[in-house]
Specification:
Helices cover about 55% and strands about 10% of the residues. The chain has about 120 residues and is mainly alpha-helical. Strand 2 (about 60-65), helix 4 (about 70-75) and strand 3 form a beta-alpha-beta unit.
Length: about 120
Amino acid sequence: MILQMKNPRFNQVSKKAKIYARMSPDHKAMLVTELQNSSKFMIAMCGDGANDCKALKTADVGLSLSEAEASIAAPFTSKIPNISPVIKLLREGRTALVTSFQVFKFMALYSMIQF
């Protein structure tokens, strides 16, 4: 099987392939982990079902394309069932994280001032 952790063929395939399909849930998570370890890029995963949950949690950016089971595991959920929201996610994802940290700082400082 090509998706073994120490398989040299996997490195050859992962350097050239851009889209992977028809994989088991464990293989999806293993692929995401291997891609994270072998590259300096952030790895994104789009999924629409329960079989994608493990890979959605493992990926740097997880996007659920449904409001079903996968939306619980993914940090981002889209109501549109295709990959067009990925561009918007990339634009707004970073600002959402910064905003969350700023709100947390505000709440922490506000509670310190009150007491």
